[in-house]
Amino acid sequence: METADLILIGLAFAAGGIIKGAVGAGAPLLAVPLMVLLRDVQFAVAVFVLPNIIPNLLQFLQYRRAIDTPRFTFTFALAGGIGAGLGTVALAGWRPDLLMLMVAVALVSYIAFRLARPAWQMPKPLASKLALPVGIVAGALQGASGLSAPVSLTFLNAIRFERDMFVATVSLYFIALGVAQLPVQIAYGIMTTERFAYSALSLIPLIGFMPVGAWIGRRLSREVFDQLILLILVVLAIKIIFDALT
Question: Cα–Cα distance between 16 and 199 in angstroms, integer?
Fold first, then answer.
């Protein structure tokens, strides 16, 4: 890969680190599409495995005491790991364009609903029942395309956790995705020595800029935090629709 491309990817990971530090998610928003453009989907998904494990482990250790519904959190994470394994197998020979377009339609519908009814919140008993199937679907999307956020963030945003609980839950979820993806990627030849090296190097700008985002995040009100998550979902919807149509 050329030096200019490496610099662009490094800057994308740095920006992702700021977003990740502030809201606990969103790091792949810039880096994954850029890597797909420069190389391919398999390269992007493989490179993002370590960024899915190490930074999220750091955030989980920092915010784990905020978890007040451990059964929900661990069920959601375990389901994500199962889905990620299945999605990684699909990545070896499947193009999920149509599925992602369907996800984008559902995502746009949810955003429109939230804008129309900003005070709506998913009841926690219902969220507990949906944790397993939603976790598997989001994990499968992560394994196949590198992006689980259209489903996982939408689901968690609908529950409207406090920031610390949100960060702890989504961090453990992403850890499970990465841990499940790595051995399957190695077994199918998706994770190569070159891609693993790039994955390790990407941790430098990502982790390096997370404290900047954390400093910003601590100063956000719940309303602003909720709006930032919605903004991330809007960007994701636009990206998915653009990719599917082009």
Answer: 14
